[in-house]
Amino acid sequence: MTELSREDINHLAKLARISLSDDDHKILERDLPKIVEFVDQITRAKVDAAPTSATTRLAELRSDEPQNRTLSKEILKKTAPEFKDGFVQVPAVFTNNNE
Amino acid sequence: MVLSRCRQYLLITMSELNAFLHTDLKPISPSPLDSLELARGNRSLEGMKVAIKDNIAVADWPLTAGSKILDGYISPYDATVITKLKRAGATLIGKTNLDEFAMGSSTETSAFGPALNPWDNTRVPGGSSGGSAAAVAAGLCDVALGSDTAGSIRQPAAFCGVTGLKPTYGSVSRYGLVALASSFDVIGAMAYKAEDVERVFAAMSGQDEFDQTTFSYKYKPEGVKVDGLKIGLPRELWELEIDPEIKKATQELVKFFVDRGAKISDVSLPSLPLALPAYYVILPAEASANLARFDGIRYKHSEPTETLLERYTKTRSVGFGAEVKRRILLGTFALSVGHYDAYYQQAVNVQRKIEQEHQEVFEKVDVLISPTTPSLPFKIGEKIDDPIEMYKSDLLTVGANLAGVPAISLPVGFSKSGLPIGAQIIAKRGSDNVVLDLAKIFQAETEHHNRRPEPSNHQ
Questions:
Q1: What is the pTM of this model?
Q2: Which Gene3D superfamilies match (chain A) (predicted)?
């Protein structure tokens, strides 16, 4: 069975861009190993490599052409948290620490 | 005076059941532009009051998906299903409560508090489309839209004594539906009568250029004959631990068809016991990728921070609830180096095997019948701290999602304690008309779908 340590959970959280509170940790350390144990049964199942399903599921693909759709500034303004001088504003990507 | 008392009663049940979010919304009636369409003769939904699960985009209405991370976000556009409902003349009356990002079977993971079951308000209405099911059951709307990824339409329909269709994957556009697991998500309708579910499905199904997984589909009723119909009873589902009252009521449904000339046989889908564990690998994997877009920049809600990286992590930590975090981390685990082949690839193999077994079984029988849920509606709080127990709510329904086939849950009776019981009819891909026809035939001669909760249960 796959073990999931506190360190493993922290690493997964880092990859998923989530920081965890102590409460989050308590819940995840209790639940994640149980869920992994539950799904673990598929790793022991004898199943052949998957037959291609794409043909049955996606019977017809649409033509690969760009659609003429525009996103107005007004809509962007409404949905973005910060908007300045006609641009969506975000925090600095690089800081002095990175230099 | 009578009218205002009615209105007051509606407001009480609306707030007490917590079936609706954003209760100050003004209903949207067909616009003059839509009236042109109506004048052309497509009036199939005129006058119908429809509630919309709050993970489906309606232009200028809030869209939260039951999550704090979308608090304050107003949808800039209509989902394809909404465009089609408006064109057919439906009136949209509001948005219904759901488990956060449709992750749950009880609506208890909603950031806005759980919805309650109108039949007994100490119990859950099921989920994730629990608000939709409760709204229909309490008579607050004629029809409600839900979405079904593992049972999220059928399980709440069963818990609330209404009819709910999970259509064939790809028959209804997902454009404008907040993505959970894109390989399985499908939008469907819930109502007391299968006839109303059918009307809405007929209006909203069909190919859509904005969803490449849709296929050309045109709904037409088939006029199924029960005499000679071949019904399969999947051994792997009937052998599960199921409440005896639910089993008995489902057997009554089977007997109804047998009495009218249908033939039954035991059938086997050997990989079905692996459906739920395989689902709990694929779903978190897809969900963790789909929810990466909630970054504190694109969807209004944002935590103030110095750097961009902090913006991501802080917004997501504050915005997502416990179940969402659980599934994102699980998906990140299943997709990470060293686990990908053992978990994700293997789960996909299992899923396709299940799909194949369904294709084979539908060469022998026309439909499958089983109970919809293993248990009656459970108490609020009963399972929320035990994720595996909660996940098992979908044991009987998840197979149809992995196979992409249509399935309908319909009311087939009540427990001695007065709680609703649902059973599901499953058919092959594209045979949504068959399951709808059979539900209509059953409802034409039975009364379960005409029973309503006592107002005292939800006052």
A1: 0.94
A2: Glu-tRNAGln amidotransferase C subunit, N-terminal domain (1.10.20.60)
